[in-house]
C-alpha cells in the first residue's frame, strides 16, 4: 500500500512541477479552496468505499422470536444474522445463548454451535411462564453484539420439564458463564476485531490522503495561466 501511494504521489507531484507557476495574487485563497474541495472529494471516496462495510450485522430470524408465545419446546434456540458470524479459534466464548425465567433461574447447558450466520443452543425450559433469551455474537465486522428477547411458554401437551439453576451454565461444566462469556477469550476476539478494523482504517486513510493531494494538484493546475 505504501509503495502504491508513494508511486502515485511521486507521479502527481512530478507532473504538477513541470512548469514553474507565475506569482499571482489570491494564491492562498485558491489553495484553501482546493484543499477544501480535495478533502471533500477524498472523504466522499473513502466513505463510498468503506461505508457499507462499517454497518453491524443484525438478526434476521430467531427461535423464539421477540415477544412470541411458544406452545412446544423447540429442538434448539437459534439466532440467525444477515451475514456469517465471526467464529474464530479462541473466541467461542464470545457466543452465548442464555435462557432465564421470571425468577432469574437459568436453563440449558451453556453450549453454543455456530454455523455460518446461525448460532444454536440445545433447548430446555421449566414450567410454563415468562422467559427471556439473552444472546451474544460476534458480527462479521468484528464487533460483539447482544440482545434480549422476551417470550412466553404455554405448552399444549406434555413437554420435558427442566429444573432451573441459580448459576449460569458453562459448556462442559466447571464454572459459570453468562452472556458476557470468558473475559480472556472475549478480549482476544476484541483484539483480533480491532486489528482488522485498524487495517481497514489505515487503507482508507491512505486513499483519503492520495485523493486530497490529487484533487489539489488538478485544481491548482487548472487555475495556472498558460506559459507565454
Quick structural gist:
This protein has 228 residues and is α+β, with helices and mostly antiparallel strands.
Keywords:
228 residues, alpha+beta, Immunoglobulin-like, 5-stranded mixed β-sheet, 4-stranded antiparallel β-sheet, 3 helices, 9 strands, 21% strand, globular
CATH topology name of the largest domain, in short, is Immunoglobulin-like
Residues in helix, %: 25-40%
From the coordinates shown, what is the CATH architecture of the largest domain? Sandwich
Structural class: alpha+beta
Termini separation: 40 Å
Order of helices and strands: HHEEEEEEEEEH
Strand order of the largest sheet: 2-9-8-4-5
Task: Please outline the helices and strands.
Elements lengths: L1 H15 L10 H24 L8 E5 L5 E2 L5 E6 L14 E6 L4 E2 L5 E3 L2 E5 L6 E10 L5 E10 L29 H40 L6
Parallel strand pairs: 2-9
Antiparallel strand pairs: 1-3, 3-7, 4-5, 4-8, 6-7, 8-9
Characterization of the model:
- The chain is α+β, with helices and mostly antiparallel strands.
- It folds into two domains: 79 residues, no CATH class; 123 residues, Immunoglobulin-like, CATH 2.60.40.
- The protein is built from three helices and nine strands, in the order H-H-E-E-E-E-E-E-E-E-E-H.
- A five-stranded mixed β-sheet has the order 2-9-8-4-5, with no helix packed on it. Strands 1-3-7-6 form a four-stranded antiparallel β-sheet, with no helix packed on it.
- Strand 6 and strand 7 form a beta hairpin.
- Helix 1 packs parallel to helix 3 and helix 2 packs antiparallel against helix 3.
- The chain is globular, with a radius of gyration of 28 Å.
- The two termini are 40 Å apart.
- About 31% of the residues have low confidence.
Amino acid at each position: 500500500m505504501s509503495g502504491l501511494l508513494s508511486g502515485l504521489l511521486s507521479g502527481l507531484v512530478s507532473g504538477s512541477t513541470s512548469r514553474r507557476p507565475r506569482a499571482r495574487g489570491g494564491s492562498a485563497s485558491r489553495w484553501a479552496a482546493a484543499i477544501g474541495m480535495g478533502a471533500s472529494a477524498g472523504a466522499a471516496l473513502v466513505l463510498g468505499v468503506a461505508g457499507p462495510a462499517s454497518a453491524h450485522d443484525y438478526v434476521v430470524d430467531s427461535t423464539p422470536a421477540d415477544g412470541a408465545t411458544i406452545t412446544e419446546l423447540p429442538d434448539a434456540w437459534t439466532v440467525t444474522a444477515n451475514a456469517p458470524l465471526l467464529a474464530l479459534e479462541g473466541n467461542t466464548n464470545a457466543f452465548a445463548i442464555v435462557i432465564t425465567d421470571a425468577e432469574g433461574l437459568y436453563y440449558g447447558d451453556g453450549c453454543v454451535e455456530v454455523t455460518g450466520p446461525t448460532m444454536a443452543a440445545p433447548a430446555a425450559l421449566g414450567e410454563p411462564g415468562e422467559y427471556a433469551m439473552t444472546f451474544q455474537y460476534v458480527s462479521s465486522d468484528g464487533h460483539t453484539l447482544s440482545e434480549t428477547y422476551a417470550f412466553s411458554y404455554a405448552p399444549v401437551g406434555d413437554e420435558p420439564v427442566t429444573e432451573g439453576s441459580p448459576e449460569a451454565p458453562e459448556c462442559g461444566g466447571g464454572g459459570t458463564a453468562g452472556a458476557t462469556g470468558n473475559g480472556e477469550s472475549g478480549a482476544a476476539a476484541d483484539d483480533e476485531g480491532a486489528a482488522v478494523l485498524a487495517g481497514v482504517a489505515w487503507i482508507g486513510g491512505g486513499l483519503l490522503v492520495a485523493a486530497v493531494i490529487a484533487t489539489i494538484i488538478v485544481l491548482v493546475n487548472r487555475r495556472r495561466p498558460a506559459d507565454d
